[in-house]
Amino acid sequence: MEFSDYTAHALIEMLDRRDISAVELTKSVFDRIAEVEPDVHAYVTLTEELALAEAAAVDKRRAAGEALGPLAGLPVAVKDNMATKGVLTTCSSRILNNFIPVYNGTAVQKLYDAGIVMTGKTNLDEFAMGSSTETSYFGPTHNPWNIDTVPGGSSGGSAAAVAAGEAVMAVGSDTGGSIRQPASLCGVVGLKPTYGLVSRYGLFAFASSLDQIGPITKDVTDTALLLNVIAGHDERDSTSVPTDIPDYTKALTGDIKGLRVGVVKELMGEGIDVDIKAAVEASVRLLGGLGAEISEVSLPHSEYALSAYYLIAPAEASSNLARYDGVRFGHRTQDEVADMVEMYMKTRAEGFGDEVKRRIMLGTYALSAGYYDAYYGQAQKVRTLIARDFAAAFNQVDIIVSPTSPSVAFKMGAKVADPLQMYLSDVCTIPVNLAGLPGISVPCGLSGGLPIGLQMIGRAFDESTLLRTAHAFELAFGWHEKPNL
Ligand code: GLN
Question: For residue 192, with 0-12 CB atoms within 10 Å meaning exposed, 13-18 middle and 19 or more buried, which class applies?
Fold first, then answer.
């Protein structure tokens, strides 16, 4: 076993005992990167020199007996849509292919303050719009389980990096499933926290009312450790909520006796792969065996979630992405232009890829005078109905479960020409974003050698119960599979 295969919590103990130094650990992760990155392409930018310097600083502080942060010396990868001071931040888009932020986003700063060693910036679908990491301007990421298949997306680089041992942990962002779905397809754990729990300051906005940053890790304990660091109120994000942050690792008791678990009726039928349905059913039986009370719950409006999402998210994106105009930062056309408007047009035509343009057009249309009420307004009403469905279900149960993704990792290229098929990848995850709730994906089996993910959904700001359930499941299920890379 290589060091990069260990969980963060195991490595923290090894670092504490000085069985290994942060520099040794970092070097071993970069050895692994050198070995597999040509096949996986999880990263847009690697920051090896910086990482080794940070690791050396941690070792020095440890040797001097200084107090260290909770993640001191751990190699962590950051999705390339989070601002990192002095380090290229592209959103996997041509329009930002030369952009170096002058500040750290809040989550990134908190990770640094906790002592992480940043390995680099991970690949994503351009501006996080996608479910396969194929729309990146820098080329696709491959799934470590089978490099002919996609890693999911949009945090495909982060999920692939963790699965392949190219980082001990990673952070991603999730607007409609972009943490949970790639975690599912890559056989790792991914948590989308409650909207408002983690600051979005420095996260390049896609759909501001949906975006959340969260952990992608090897197990639930690592997710709790990482969440401990990044959660919390931030004055720089007006949607971040002042709330007490418990020590999430304390919630991991292994005991879920009497917990009420509801299986979503609407997400166990049509469109869900038979193997996935069977794995989720078996997982639910396992939870029952641990003493949970199992029932069925209904989210009657979930069938409209995708339609509502594909109006709300593009509407917000069309507004958020208006800032990329080539004036103050990012790509600007080199062509001769007659005036400023032509400069904008050429810059944006060159800088954005097809999927981003599709979303901008969809969103602009949905918001245009005369259509606003029929599209955007209507979608917001559906969003409220979906939130009410969840509220009603949480009157009956404490945790809601479903598949994370309707299929396992699909072949590269299989869905690029059919946006609707691609959008369907998120049927199970999107309702959770619309309702602002926390959702986690944990591995629950294999189909054709590819991982299956179980989604668990909790009450707003009750990450403790969610993590406790996921952890109890993980212990009982005993997932030890790894990609053979
Ligand atoms: N796949 C969804 C989309 O394309 C969700 C993306 C995300 O969560 N960032 O919008």
Answer: buried
For the cut 90, the answer to whether the pLDDT of residue 3 exceeds it is no
| 131 upstream amide cis, omega within 30 of 0 | no
Q: Which domains does the chain have, with CATH numbers?
A: 3-260 (3.90.1300.10)
pLDDT tens per residue, range 156-198: 999 999 999 999 999 999 999 999 999 999 999 999 999 999 9
Task: Assess whether the C-beta atom of 355 lies below 6 angstroms from ligand 1.
Answer: no
Catalytic residues: 79, 154, 178
Atom of ligand 1 nearest to the CA of 355: 4
Q: How far is CA 231 from CA 224, 234, 415, in A?
A: 10, 9, 35
Which residues, 6+ apart, have CB-to-CB distance to 112 below 8 Å?
104, 118
Distance CA 384, CA 392 (A): 12
Which whole number is the average pLDDT over 72-91? Answer: 98
Compute the distance from residue 63 Cα to the ligand 1 centre, in Å. 44
Does the pTM of the predicted model rise above 0.90?
yes
176 C-beta closer than 6 A to ligand 1: yes
130 lines ligand 1 (CB under 6 A): yes
